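> forwarded from #structure-qc
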């Protein structure tokens, strides 16, 4: 993808009450970074997922 420099993933487990995730970037900035949204997944949903969504890092299912 033109202009794509790659990605660095850091994974953290944080137990907290539910909330709507929202970073510091505006929607336009997120779109420029090809980020279209945020979604919470239960660990078992990730482990069993066989749909079109890709998880990153690829080893996330093993964590």
């Amino acid at each position: 993808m033109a202009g794509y420099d790659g990605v660095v993933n850091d994974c953290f487990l944080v137990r907290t009450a539910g909330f709507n995730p929202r970073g510091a970037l505006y929607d336009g900035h997120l779109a420029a970074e090809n980020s279209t949204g945020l979604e919470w997944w239960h660990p078992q949903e990730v482990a069993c997922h066989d749909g079109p969504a890709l998880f990153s890092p690829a080893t996330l299912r093993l964590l």
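QC bot note: The CA atoms of residues 46 and 61 lie 6 Å apart. The longest helix spans residues 27-32.
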